[in-house]
Amino acid sequence: MHLVMLGPPGSGKGTQGEMLAEDLQIPHIATGDIFRRAVKESTELGQKAQLYMNRGELVPDEVVVGIVSERLREPDCKKGFVLDGFPRTVGQAKALDEILLGLGEKLDGVILLKVEKEVLVGRLSGRRVCRRCGATYHVDYTPPRRMGRCDRCGGELYQRKDDGEETVRRRLDVHQGQTEPLQIYYRERGLLHTIDAGQSIERVFTDIREELGRGQ
User: Fold this and answer.
1) Is position 171 annotated as part of the catalytic site?
2) Which CATH number do you get for residue 27?
3) Average pLDDT for consecutive 10-residue bins of the chain (216 residues)?
């Protein structure tokens, strides 16, 4: 099964993508991970991506698509994949269609995780990170035993700049504007499955599996 996960920051794409991939016994492919691997291994495309990132520029679509294409052609993707973080635009979505066409495959479904904006703001702005070991906590959901201190190493917990409420709201607004055309593209093709991701992790996963079952 070939699937794409869509959803704003804090919606649980990574968690649900990993659970779904394990359940279906196919790889969960987070584009951030494959980018870092391409750069670390200094592949031809990885070197090109590094050049743009060093200059503080966006990596062009042709490089992004190339890195994704290389990953999807690896042997573990023969039975399918759960793609997380790509596509981000309609242009990338069309490029994915071309990649799959070249492999003799097609996209089976797109999971859109929907969460109320205020819930997302609470999820993201409540995050705290240990300065020493990088452990992550949440002031409401996973608080440390001692206020402001890491349970693992005792290091100081802080709020990253990206997790400040004002920044979070801007990130969510930008994401919505960027992905709305993508949602329309997949909805018109009958591939979009919208899931209420404001529920428990277990309930969201159950809803995804039921929705995919109906689509088969």
Assistant:
1) yes
2) 3.40.50.300
3) 95 95 96 89 91 85 94 95 95 96 96 96 95 95 95 96 93 92 97 96 96 76
